[in-house]
Automatic annotation (TrEMBL):
<comment type="function">
    <text>Adenine glycosylase active on G-A mispairs. MutY also corrects error-prone DNA synthesis past GO lesions which are due to the oxidatively damaged form of guanine: 7,8-dihydro-8-oxoguanine (8-oxo-dGTP).</text>
</comment>
<dbReference type="InterPro" id="IPR029119">
    <property type="entry name" value="MutY_C"/>
</dbReference>
<keyword id="KW-0411">Iron-sulfur</keyword>
<dbReference type="GO" id="GO:0034039">
    <property type="term" value="F:8-oxo-7,8-dihydroguanine DNA N-glycosylase activity"/>
</dbReference>
<dbReference type="InterPro" id="IPR044298">
    <property type="entry name" value="MIG/MutY"/>
</dbReference>
<dbReference type="GO" id="GO:0000701">
    <property type="term" value="F:purine-specific mismatch base pair DNA N-glycosylase activity"/>
</dbReference>
<keyword id="KW-0408">Iron</keyword>
<dbReference type="Pfam" id="PF00730">
    <property type="entry name" value="HhH-GPD"/>
</dbReference>
<dbReference type="Pfam" id="PF10576">
    <property type="entry name" value="EndIII_4Fe-2S"/>
</dbReference>
<keyword id="KW-0326">Glycosidase</keyword>
<dbReference type="InterPro" id="IPR023170">
    <property type="entry name" value="HhH_base_excis_C"/>
</dbReference>
<dbReference type="GO" id="GO:0051539">
    <property type="term" value="F:4 iron, 4 sulfur cluster binding"/>
</dbReference>
<keyword id="KW-0479">Metal-binding</keyword>
<dbReference type="InterPro" id="IPR003651">
    <property type="entry name" value="Endonuclease3_FeS-loop_motif"/>
</dbReference>
<keyword id="KW-0004">4Fe-4S</keyword>
<dbReference type="Pfam" id="PF00633">
    <property type="entry name" value="HHH"/>
</dbReference>
<dbReference type="InterPro" id="IPR000445">
    <property type="entry name" value="HhH_motif"/>
</dbReference>
Length: 344
DNA sequence: AAACCGGGGTT
DNA sequence: AACCCAGGTTT
């Protein structure tokens, strides 16, 4: 009954989203990678861009990684973009351009875990396997009034098993979409609209007025404090940027010269850096420190613009005009800074 | 400031 | 199973 009620609610109330009008695994995979850790509202324009630029997995595989990262710019968690490109190449080279057609094999692809594999397997191939994202997890824990912590792997496994039973003999794709859509639009984290919920009668948490307490997380996110300083070297309208290495954070993306420090002694960083690269300084401009709050880190980032008397050699970087910078994939903090630079 | 969209990857 | 993640946006 659970499944059928939810599906019928979904068919009447679903949002019309482009990836819901296809069973092409390439488009579904693309949308799911974009939507990892990302709201529909934010991911939608990126999906449109990618579909337009890369109509097939072959087209995506043939692109340069730089192009892919440039299109991904601003979306965050850039390893998704790199995995997207790598996986496209694997699918073309090793799978003959056809995505694996089942839950188990899909998880072999880089960037495709349990949730994403279940989503593709059910939407594209109608395999009966539950796609449990945060929305579905919230719906299920509330419906069964599960007070166990959802960040425990064993609890997640139990819920996966329960969900597997629930979806027997129903349309797997629509069922999975339905549960997630209910979580996204009705069974929301705060102020859920229980009055309009199609399954409120059978919802244990609703019955016992415990909706606002569920789901429960055992662990709190740890937040650490970090200090960074960017040196924006400028010479005759050109700016120095470096392509980051393959094995580090923001891999293969471009940014200014970066120093991480133990504290806020940004002056010392400046002295050291100028000395290290033997830079002839014309002038120094200090920008207000930016507080950058991330999920796991509080960052204080200082931008220091150094106008140089010559375009010296500074590590493995190059000097670019503002216009040339547009074509390089950069983290958003850099994009934003350049935006301000342009404004003056 | 914390929560949210969280899943995937590594150890 | 524990731990990590150089995100953007909303509450």
């Amino acid at each position: 009954m659970f499944a059928k009620k939810i599906i019928s609610w979904y068919l009447k109330n679903k949002r019309d989203l482009p990836w819901r009008n296809t069973d092409n695994p390439y488009y579904i995979w693309l949308s799911e990678i974009i939507l990892q850790q990302t709201r529909v509202q934010q991911g939608l324009p990126y999906y449109e861009k990618f579909v337009e630029n890369f109509k097939t997995v072959e087209a995506l595989a043939a692109a340069n990684e730089g192009e892919v990262l440039r299109l991904w710019q601003g979306l965050g968690y850039y390893s998704r973009g790199r995995n997207l490109h790598k996986t496209a190449q694997v699918v073309v080279r090793e799978y003959g351009g056809r995505f694996p057609d089942n839950f188990k094999d899909l998880q072999k692809l880089k960037g495709v875990g349990r949730y994403t594999a279940a989503a593709i397997a059910s939407f594209a191939f109608n395999e009966s396997v539950p796609a449990i994202d945060g929305n579905a997890l919230r719906v299920l824990t509330r419906f069964f009034e599960i007070f166990d912590p959802i960040d425990s792997p064993s609890v997640q496994k139990n819920i996966f098993d329960i969900a597997t039973d629930l979806m027997k003999n129903v349309d797997a794709g629509n069922y999975n979409q339905a549960v997630m859509e209910l979580g996204a639009t009705v069974c929301t984290p705060k102020n859920p609209n229980c009055e309009e919920c199609p399954i409120n009668i059978e919802c244990k948490a609703f019955e016992n007025k415990s909706v606002s307490q569920i789901p429960i997380k055992a662990k709190k996110t740890k937040v650490s404090q970090k200090f960074f300083q960017y040196f924006v070297f400028e010479h005759k309208g050109r700016y120095w940027l470096k392509k980051r290495a393959d094995n580090e954070i923001w891999a293969n993306m471009y940014d200014f010269y970066l120093v991480e420090s133990e504290n806020l002694d940004y002056h010392e960083n400046l002295e050291k850096t100028i000395e290290e690269f033997n830079i002839e300084v014309e002038s120094v401009k200090t920008y207000p420190v930016v507080n950058h709050i991330l999920t796991h880190q509080k960052q204080q980032i200082a931008f220091t613009e150094v106008k140089c008397k010559s375009a010296s050699t500074i590590g493995n970087g190059n000097w670019y005009t503002i216009e040339e910078l547009d074509d390089l994939a950069k983290p958003k903090i850099i994009v934003d800074f350049i935006q301000n630079l342009k404004k003056g």
